[in-house]
Amino acid sequence: MGNFAVLLVICVIVVILFAAIVAVLSRYRKCPSDKILVIYGKVGTDEFGNPRSAKCIHGGAAFIVPVIQSYQYLDLTPISMNVDLRNALSKQNIRINVPSRFTVGISTEPAVMQNAAERLLGLKMVEIQELAKDIIFGQLRLIIATMDIEEINADRDKFLVAISKNVEIELKKIGLRLINVNVTDITDESGYLDALGKEAAAKAVNDAKRSVAEQNRDGEIGQANAQQEQRVQVAKANASAIEGENLARVAVADSEALRREREAEALRKATAAEAVQSARAKQEAYSAQQEAEQARADLEKATQKADVIVKAQIAKEQAEIKAEAEAEVTRRKARGEADAIFAKMEAEAKGQQEILTRQAEGMKAIVEAAGGDANAAVKLLIAEKLEDLIAIQVEAVKNIKIDKVTVWDSGQNADGQNSTAGFISGLMKSVPPLNDLFRQAGMELPDLLGKPAEKEEEIPHFEPEVVSAEETPDTETDDEM
Fold it and tell me: CB neighbours of 182 closer than 8 A, spacing ≥ 6?
């Protein structure tokens, strides 16, 4: 029983070891010749110490570390595609069609393989084909735009070299290489290439005809020399031959004239076709130039309009800002003037209030000094202003000017005054006395200034007395005051 347990343990250990060996061997991957083994995950660093995104192996094998590494294959099978380029613009502004066939494949160069691992891993062949086709289309258009049609059509090797150079550089960026390029035919919609072909064919035909004519000429010359020698030797025998020769020469001349006529007609047609194609090309060039000039004129017009509008907008904004600034200055000036007026009026009001306060305090002191008797206080104030009041009363008659007074004096009145003294006395009494002024004000003069008379004296009334001229002579007195 103990031996059986030991045997069982040994078997288990053997099975585990075998499974481990199988697992290890299963992670050891061999790379076929038509594929590239791409190992990604933790694959080490490059020469600069940066982590590598992938490790590419073409041929041989590698061990894939479990958990931290994985792998995929890139197929090296060539990809063939038709690139039918239409309406590509050449250097002469003529659109041409360039149908071609390209063959590309994933490159096995180390740097390019790394690009393929980074950009093509996981893509299907159709997706890789579309990506390569887009790049080829762009480079073809770029190359055609830098070459003339004659150069593209005549020097195919130069055209193919330019394609290979430019396309190869762009394809390497995504990990591909150009294997083959085959341009089937080049055509254009304007018929320019057809005209060039017809011109070349006509030139070849003309050269061939010229060569035939030269050979015929040499043969005729040789034949004529032989015949001349023969005629010299046997003139009589060849008389009939000479006549036949003349007829043959006429036929030859007619044939030669017909040949030249046909050659001239072919040359005329070729020249006319060339002129038509040249005129058509110039017309298209002129149309394109006219469109460009019109676009330039529209651009210039839009530029001028934008400049005018922008300047007008700037002038408008400047005027608005200036007007707003002037209005703000006016408002601030008005507020300042209003504040100054308010401060002035407030100061004047405070001054008036202070004056009235001081006057009230003075009046209060005067009343207190008068023993609280308001009338006595008023009398004191009037006594202080009496001189001014009398001066005002005198001023009432001071400035009265009497140029001339005529008095008929009839002697003395009962009171002993003559008429002139009575006139002056009445004039003075016309001025209101102080007592009347005080009564109008509701006050009484103090006793020290005198009391009013108990009865007003009658103002003597002057009545002119008629006397004769003999008793009392008229006296004219002129007084100026």
Answer: 100, 101, 102
Tens digits of residue pLDDT in 369-406: 777 777 777 777 777 776 777 777 667 666 666 666 56
Q: What percent of the chain has pLDDT over 70?
A: 76
Mean pLDDT of 154-179: 87
The answer to whether the CB of 409 falls within 8 A of the CB of 465 is no
Contact by Cβ (8 Å): 37, 59: no
Which whole number is the average pLDDT over 250-275? 86
pLDDT tens sequence across 167-184 = 989 999 999 999 998 887
Measuring CA to CA, how many Å separate 180 from each of 29, 81, 102?
A: 32, 11, 6
Rounded Cα distance, 184 and 159, in Å: 13
* Ramachandran sector of residue 234 (left: φ over 0; alpha: ψ -120 to 50; beta: rest): beta
Residue 106, beta-bridge partner list? 176
- Tokens read off for 441: 């004000």
Per-residue pLDDT reduced to its tens digit, 294-334: 888 888 887 777 777 777 888 888 888 988 888 888 888 88
Q: What's the whole-number mean pLDDT along residues 142-148?
A: 86
Q: Enter the tokens of residue 305.
A: 């309009």
**Cα-flanking dihedrals φ and ψ of residue 95, to 5°?**
-85, 135
Plot region of 245 (φ>0 → left; ψ -120 to 50 → alpha; else → beta): alpha
Provide the β-strand partners of residue 40: 54, 70
How far is Cα 189 from Cα 281, in angstroms, rounded to an integer? 11
Amino acid at 16: I
Contact at 8 Å (CB) between 40 and 113? no
Contacts of 391 (CB under 8 A, 6+ apart): none
Contact 149, 192 (CB under 8 A): yes
Strand, helix or coil for residue 71? strand
Residues near 40 by beta carbon (within 8 Å), at least 6 away in sequence: 53, 54, 55, 69, 70, 71, 72, 117, 121
Over 70: is that where the pLDDT of 42 sits?
Answer: yes
**CA–CA separation, 463 vs 414, rounded Å?**
12
Q: Identify the burial level of 443 via C-beta atoms within 10 angstroms of its C-beta, where 0-12 means exposed, 13-18 middle and 19 or more buried.
A: middle
At 176 the pLDDT is: 92
Residue pair 119/174 in contact (Cβ under 8 Å)? The answer is: yes
